């Protein structure tokens, strides 16, 4: 079992920045960030493999950066140049047997809300 707790969400104006954090029991496995807006399916935002392999959704490339600090067991998502369409609940996830932007992760956090106003 891996416990994940997200934080750092909030309200920001378009063009602003936020940094999300996800404190985990450990960060040895592949980890990812996902988001879900009301009425929409959950979508993968970024993933970071245990080998350092990075994947980003096209919609956030060049604006979002995923990283982790293994000493702090924390995954981060730096979000810059935020747009109203980035408004969603953001979740972190991890799994020892899956990596990527699909929903195949076994362990999920409870989510943190990000609201971007125009």
Secondary structure layout plus pairing:
Blueprint: E1 4-7, E2 10-13, E3 18-24, E4 30-36, E5 43-48, E6 54-56, E7 64-69, E8 74-79, E9 88-95, E10 107-108, E11 112-117
Parallel strand pairs: 2-11
Antiparallel strand pairs: 1-3, 3-8, 4-5, 4-9, 5-6, 7-8, 9-10, 9-11
Task: Describe, in plain words, how this protein is organized in 3D.
The termini are far apart. The protein is 0% helix and 50% strand. The chain has strands at residues 4-7, 10-13, 18-24, 30-36, 43-48, 54-56, 64-69, 74-79, 88-95, 107-108, 112-117. By secondary structure, it is mainly beta. Strand 5 and strand 6 (54-56) form a beta hairpin. The protein contains no helices and eleven strands. The model has no long low-confidence stretch (mean pLDDT 97).
Query: How many beta-strand runs?
Result: 11
Radius of gyration, in angstroms, nearest whole number? 13 Å
pLDDT under 50 segments (min length 5)? none
* Number of H/I helices: 0
SSE run: EEEEEEEEEEE
Mean pLDDT across residues: 97
The description of the largest β-sheet is:
7 strands, mixed
Helix proportion range: under 10%
Short summary:
By secondary structure, the protein is mainly β.
Q: What attributes does this structure have?
A:
118 residues, mainly beta, 7-stranded mixed beta sheet, globular
């Amino acid at each position: 079992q891996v416990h994940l707790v997200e934080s750092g969400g909030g309200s920001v104006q378009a063009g602003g920045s936020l940094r999300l954090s996800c404190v985990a029991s450990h960060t040895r496995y592949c980890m990812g960030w996902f988001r879900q807006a009301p009425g929409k399916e959950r979508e993968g935002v970024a993933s970071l493999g245990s080998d350092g392999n990075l994947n980003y959704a096209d919609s956030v490339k060049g604006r979002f950066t995923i990283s982790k600090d293994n000493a702090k067991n924390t995954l981060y998502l730096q979000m810059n140049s935020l747009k109203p369409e980035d408004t969603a609940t953001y979740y972190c996830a991890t799994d020892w047997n899956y990596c990527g932007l699909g929903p195949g992760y076994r362990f999920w956090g409870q989510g943190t809300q990000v609201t971007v106003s125009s």
